[in-house]
Amino acid sequence: MAQEKKESKVVNPRNTAEESQPETNPLVLERLEEWQDLKFGFMAHWGMYTQWGVVESWSICSEPWISRNGANYMGYFLSYRNLNTTFNPTRFDAKRWAKAAGDAGMKYMIFTTKHHDGFCMFDSKYTNYTIADKSCAYSKRFPHDPTKELVDAFRAKGMWTGLYFSKPDWHHEDYWAPEWATPDRNVNYDPVEYPERWNNFCEFTYNQIYELTHNYGYIDILWLDGGWVRPQWSINDESRPWLGCNGYVQDINMPRIARMARENNPNLLIVDRSVGGKYENYRTPEQQVPDTYLDYPWETCMSMGDSWSYVKDDNYKTTNTLIHTLVDVVSKGGNFLLNVGPDQYGAIPDTALSRMREMGDWLKTNGKAIYSTRACSPYVSGKWRFTQSKDHNTIYAIYLLDQGEDMPEVVTLPTLNRVPTGASVVGGGSAKLKIADNAVQVYVHPSKKALHAVAIALTFEEKK
Questions:
Q1: In this structure, what is the dihedral angle of CA atoms 22, 26, 30, 32, given to the nearest 10 degrees?
Q2: What residues have CB less than 8 Å from 245, skipping those under 6 apart?
Q3: What's the gap between Cα 113 and its chain centre?
Q4: What are the pLDDT digits (tens) for 141-189?
Q5: Domains of the chain (ranges, CATH numbers)
Q6: Cα-Cα-Cα-Cα dihedral sign, residues 155, 273, 118, 250
Q7: Strand pairing partners for 439?
Q8: What is the C-alpha separation between 308 and 255, in angstroms, rounded?
Q9: What are phi and psi of 434, to 5 degrees?
Q10: Sheet holding 335-340, edge to edge
Q11: What is the pLDDT of residues 226-282, one digit of tens each?
């Protein structure tokens, strides 16, 4: 079952003071700067839970906020765990996913290789709880590794590849030990009292991340979830409640994991979500957009519907809302990672595909104001959002239109740090400036190509 471990000994005592500080490796920082050029990414939560159309993993966790619609917990739990035996996504086509993301204007992807329930969407040699194992219905007819197929397909489209991995694993007997109850999301025994057992789980985690960062060629991003699994130095007022009723510290030794993960990918970006320090190369506010500009690398991760994973008749956001969110995020210095939930057959729902195509149409016309830009003061003002080229030589102003609203013929610019002397419409058309009483008015006439009733991007010239 298990393959030879590449490193099994415990490392020397760690320098936690250094570990808590931001990354200083120039290779990683340079790659992080390149990541900030991408702006728009594709995320997919997909697993065996799609057969029931329920939220990924969480329905088997025993916390007060989780509902199973009155079902008996143990019966529900056992039935959920056996979903691997019937999971058979016969319509899965990695190339279709990659094409849809490319047509949407997305530049990188994050795929959920393993969520908290422990079911692996990749071929792991350290568990039989995988889509590639003979216990899974899919493997009997399609003995493939979806993670490999997706990485290959997205890479072929020129997109960055990123892999989501859950640090907690609710299927592993050295995380949720069967001898004890599981009162919440956390490990259900004290790692200090049972160090050998905890070390076994750490080895398992290390070995699975080894597989993900060594078996699939060059990986750009390792995106780690499950922020309650974290070292002592990182625990603060926000994260302390996540540790549940027992408050066990769950340190999986990220320095050791990071060294191993970067053996083949020395500039790999690692996102140890919410932990901070050296191994959270960028931050990931979830389902929200910050109120204003942030002066560090960040990414809003957001679901297209109400759910991260597939739910029949999900409430999808409108194209207008999605494009406005993208523009808003970029104007504040962030990237936008948009999640879709493929269904139990492995297909992206038609509504999601439609939204992605419409976003791509807008970006084909206006992408110059989005890609490879940086935030520009005043960032946000009423319906205006501002970006600028990396060399600071070009300012872009994007005017957000309400659903069905036409671009006003005359709009007033908020006060800028630099006074523009000329203007044009990014997607084509004409724009003229009139400066009166210290106010800059813009007369806008977009071309038909640029006239998408969502948002109009303008670019400004300055007096040299």
A1: -20
A2: 183, 184
A3: 13
A4: 777 899 999 999 999 999 999 999 999 999 999 999 999 999 999 999 9
A5: 16-369 (3.20.20.80), 373-462 (2.60.40.1180)
A6: positive
A7: 436
A8: 30
A9: -135, 120
A10: 269-272, 221-225, 160-166, 108-114, 40-44, 335-340, 299-303
A11: 999 999 999 999 999 999 999 999 999 999 999 999 999 999 999 999 999 999 999
Residues belonging to the chain: 464
Could you tell me if residue 118 is left (phi over 0), alpha (psi between -120 and 50 degrees) or otherwise beta? left
Helix-strand-coil percent breakdown of the chain, rounded to 5? 30, 20, 50
Which candidate, 23, 240, 14, 214, places its Cα nearest to that of 124?
A: 214
Q: What is the pTM of this model?
A: 0.95
Would you give the DSSP letter of residue 82?
G
- Give the DSSP H/E element, type plus range, for residue 44: strand 40-44
Burial grade of 350 (CB within 10 A; 0-12, 13-18, 19 or more):
exposed
- 3-state DSSP assignment of residue 57: coil
Q: How far is it, in rounded angstroms, from Cα 94 to Cα 74?
A: 35
Q: What is the DSSP string of 139-178?
A: HHH----HHHHHHHHHHHTT-EEEEEEESS-TTSTTTS-T
Give dist(CA 444, CA 397) in Å, integer.
12
Question: Smallest Cα–Cα separation from 52: which of 68, 74, 66?
Answer: 68
pLDDT of residue 376: 95
H/E stretch holding 433:
strand 429-436
Give the closest residue to 40 by CA, choosing from 101, 112, 99.
101
Give me the pLDDT at residue 127, please. Answer: 98
Please state the φ and ψ torsions of residue 245, each to the nearest 5 degrees: -70, -25
- Alpha-carbon gap, residue 258 to 278, rounded angstroms: 10
Do the Cβ atoms of 445 and 431 come closer than 8 Å?
A: yes
Nearest to 410 by CA among 378, 436, 380, 381: 436
Return the pLDDT at 124: 97
- The Cα 117–Cα 426 span in angstroms is 46
Q: Record the tokens describing residue 43, joined without a space.
A: 């995320």
pLDDT of residue 9: 37
d(CA 48, CA 267): 32
Tokens standing for 70?
């009155």
C-alpha span between 383 and 400 (Å, rounded): 5
Place of tokens 């991260």: 308
Q: Is there a contact between 388 and 394 (Cβ–Cβ < 8 Å)?
A: yes
